[in-house]
């Protein structure tokens, strides 16, 4: 099949290109950056330089590619994300999740593509009441911290238009927290270095529940979604959602760091703000049963316990 991969140089994109080529798909892959074009060509994709905010350019590129499947992996999360200024850090990504999703979806429809797959997120958007592990059927958080609202609205918008547009099969993949080479939680990344330097504390009792996924497993689930799975939302997370109080000391141990410090909620709120405090103390995990059942996906790192030791 012909696949238009918007954001072919990002965390998922760069891994997805070879997976798709290996099973015989043709890939047209985008970047904004001229110096990344040769790398895309070497990986087997046809490169296109594209700014996702330019609707007419998106339309032209998609129509020219005549794809059967469009995969939207454009985000703007590189660099040091400052969780204290959550809204500012996610502003560009919010536009890519709203305006650019519209541009890509309209172009996909016009080009006659049959399938549209978009990157969403599992974790802090989940409702923070009830059981510890949420499925795709469970509601999302309706009362997020104010700084997070615009980002949650952008995720909700992306999921609604992706799965609710008639004339095309839409799948929204809610990835858990990525870890692995090249990621913030991978060798040399900000989170990796922060935990190594004992700068990431357990806030309160560390009762926030995180769902992780190794970046290679996330890319494999995406490759499977190109030709499997009914339209809808899928959690792409590992088998073991876990409290911060459990995974953070484990990660510190794996990295050879001292055990994380402990910080009371009131103090953390003053220094890092409510979004991060909520992630450390309140968020819920996600179930991967649907992705396993309907995509036939089996993560190579079924739990972060193995992945943190072998896959960073
Ligand atoms: N679920 C998760 O935990 C999650 C999800 C996503 C990202 N992250 C983390 O965030 C960090 C950065 O992510 P990333 O490597 O995927 O990089 P990124 O900066 O988010 O870029 C992703 C892709 O989007 C493209 N892009 C960005 N802005 C664009 C625009 N305005 N128009 C068109 N394309 C645009 C980039 O192309 P260019 O080649 O032009 O840069 C790249 O192909 C990593 O640590 C990653 O693990 C985590």
Mean pLDDT: 97
> pLDDT under 50 segments (min length 5)?
none
Q: Mind telling me which CATH architecture this is?
A: 3-Layer(aba) Sandwich
Query: What spatial form do the alpha-carbon principal axes imply?
Result: globular
| Bound chemical compounds | NADP nicotinamide-adenine-dinucleotide phosphate
Helix/strand order, N-terminal first? EHEHEHEHEEHEEHEEEHEEHEHHEHH
In terms of DSSP E residues, the strand content is 15-25%
Helix share bin: 40-55%
CATH topology: Rossmann fold
Cα(first) to Cα(last) distance is: 32 Å
CATH superfamily: NAD(P)-binding Rossmann-like Domain
Helix-strand category: alpha/beta
Structural write-up:
With 312 residues, this protein is α/β, with parallel strands linked by helices. It has a single domain, classed as 3-Layer(aba) Sandwich (Rossmann fold), CATH 3.40.50. It is built from 12 helices and 15 strands. The strands form 5 sheets. A 7-stranded parallel β-sheet has the order 3-2-1-4-5-7-12, with helices on both faces. It has a two-stranded parallel ribbon with strand order 6-15. The longest helix has 26 residues. The structure holds NADP nicotinamide-adenine-dinucleotide phosphate. NADP nicotinamide-adenine-dinucleotide phosphate binds next to strand 8.
């Amino acid at each position: 099949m012909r696949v238009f991969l918007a954001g072919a140089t990002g965390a998922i994109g760069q891994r997805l290109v070879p997976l798709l080529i290996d099973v015989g798909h043709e890939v047209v892959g985008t970047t904004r950056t001229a110096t990344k074009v040769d790398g895309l060509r070497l990986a087997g994709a046809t490169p296109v330089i594209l700014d996702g905010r330019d609707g007419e350019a998106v339309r032209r590129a998609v129509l020219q590619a005549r794809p059967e499947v469009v995969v939207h992996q454009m985000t703007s999360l590189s660099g040091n994300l400052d969780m204290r200024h959550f809204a500012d850090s996610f502003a560009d990504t919010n536009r890519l999740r709203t305006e650019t999703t519209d541009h890509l979806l309209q172009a996909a429809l016009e080009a006659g593509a049959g399938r549209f797959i978009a990157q969403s997120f599992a974790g802090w958007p989940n409702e923070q009441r009830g059981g510890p592990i949420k499925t795709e059927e469970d509601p999302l958080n309706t009362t997020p911290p104010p700084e997070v609202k615009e980002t949650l609205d952008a995720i909700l918008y992306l999921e609604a238009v992706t799965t609710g547009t008639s004339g095309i099969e839409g799948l929204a993949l809610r990835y858990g927290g990525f870890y692995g080479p090249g990621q913030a939680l991978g060798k040399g990344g900000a989170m990796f270095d922060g935990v190594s330097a004992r700068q990431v504390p357990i806030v309160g009792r560390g009762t926030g529940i995180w769902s992780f996924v190794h970046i290679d497993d996330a890319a494999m689930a995406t490759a499977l979604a190109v030709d499997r799975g009914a339209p809808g939302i899928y959690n792409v997370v590992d088998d073991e959602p876990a409290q911060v109080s459990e995974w953070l000391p484990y990660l510190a141990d794996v990295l050879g760091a001292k055990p994380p410090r402990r910080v009371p909620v009131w103090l953390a709120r003053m220094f890092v703000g409510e979004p991060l405090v909520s992630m450390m103390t309140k968020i819920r995990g996600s179930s991967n049963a649907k992705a396993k059942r309907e995509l036939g996906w089996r993560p190579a790192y079924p739990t972060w316990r193995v992945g943190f030791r072998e896959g960073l």
